Amino acid sequence: MKNLTDSFLSLGHWPFAGSFGFNTDILATNPINLSVVIGVLIFFGKGVLNDLLDNRKDRILNAIRNSEELRGGAIEQLERARARLRKVETEADLFRVNGYSDIEREKLNLIDSTYKTLEQLENYKNETIQFEQQRAINQVRQRVFQQALQGALGTLNSCLLNNELHLRTISANIGMLGAMKEITD
């Protein structure tokens, strides 16, 4: 290791007259080396760096343009979707209102038809009751009439001694019965 250090130290003692060598003085050589390296980099790397920066700038601008176009398209789609949503909501409200009014109308129609049906059934019931009452009354009348007639005939038969008077009374009663029967029919 000492040999390696000695060899670097011996490089520092080379003569400067017309020969090429290494300057190991760090403070004197670094700013010069850095300025040479930076100058070479600027001279040769300027075009490459400009091209890289221009390409990057173009890609960023293209990305911005594309995102703006996509944003514009998305905004248009959003507006169309909002318009469709408003239209569908309006139609839904219309259907809902019409549906409710149709339901109310059908409900009222059903109630009216139910009342009419109940009214008709009540009328039929009353007519049936009236008919049955009339039939019962007629049956009672016929029985009462038949019983009264039989009673009258029995009384007449027992009371009448004369055959001729008996026949006239029977004929008169038959005539009355015929007239009454026509009235009841």
TrEMBL record:
<keyword id="KW-0406">Ion transport</keyword>
<comment type="subunit">
    <text>F-type ATPases have 2 components, F(1) - the catalytic core - and F(0) - the membrane proton channel. F(1) has five subunits: alpha(3), beta(3), gamma(1), delta(1), epsilon(1). F(0) has four main subunits: a(1), b(1), b'(1) and c(10-14). The alpha and beta chains form an alternating ring which encloses part of the gamma chain. F(1) is attached to F(0) by a central stalk formed by the gamma and epsilon chains, while a peripheral stalk is formed by the delta, b and b' chains.</text>
</comment>
<dbReference type="GO" id="GO:0046933">
    <property type="term" value="F:proton-transporting ATP synthase activity, rotational mechanism"/>
</dbReference>
<dbReference type="GO" id="GO:0009535">
    <property type="term" value="C:chloroplast thylakoid membrane"/>
</dbReference>
<keyword id="KW-0375">Hydrogen ion transport</keyword>
<keyword id="KW-0138">CF(0)</keyword>
<keyword id="KW-0934">Plastid</keyword>
<keyword id="KW-0813">Transport</keyword>
<dbReference type="InterPro" id="IPR002146">
    <property type="entry name" value="ATP_synth_b/b'su_bac/chlpt"/>
</dbReference>
<keyword id="KW-1133">Transmembrane helix</keyword>
<dbReference type="GO" id="GO:0045259">
    <property type="term" value="C:proton-transporting ATP synthase complex"/>
</dbReference>
<keyword id="KW-0812">Transmembrane</keyword>
<comment type="function">
    <text>F(1)F(0) ATP synthase produces ATP from ADP in the presence of a proton or sodium gradient. F-type ATPases consist of two structural domains, F(1) containing the extramembraneous catalytic core and F(0) containing the membrane proton channel, linked together by a central stalk and a peripheral stalk. During catalysis, ATP synthesis in the catalytic domain of F(1) is coupled via a rotary mechanism of the central stalk subunits to proton translocation.</text>
</comment>
<keyword id="KW-0472">Membrane</keyword>
<dbReference type="Pfam" id="PF00430">
    <property type="entry name" value="ATP-synt_B"/>
</dbReference>
<keyword id="KW-0793">Thylakoid</keyword>
<keyword id="KW-0066">ATP synthesis</keyword>
<comment type="similarity">
    <text>Belongs to the ATPase B chain family.</text>
</comment>
<keyword id="KW-0175">Coiled coil</keyword>
<keyword id="KW-0150">Chloroplast</keyword>
<feature type="transmembrane region" description="Helical">
    <location>
        <begin position="32"/>
        <end position="49"/>
    </location>
</feature>
<comment type="function">
    <text>Component of the F(0) channel, it forms part of the peripheral stalk, linking F(1) to F(0).</text>
</comment>
<feature type="coiled-coil region">
    <location>
        <begin position="71"/>
        <end position="98"/>
    </location>
</feature>
<protein>
    <recommendedName>
        <fullName>ATP synthase subunit b, chloroplastic</fullName>
    </recommendedName>
</protein>
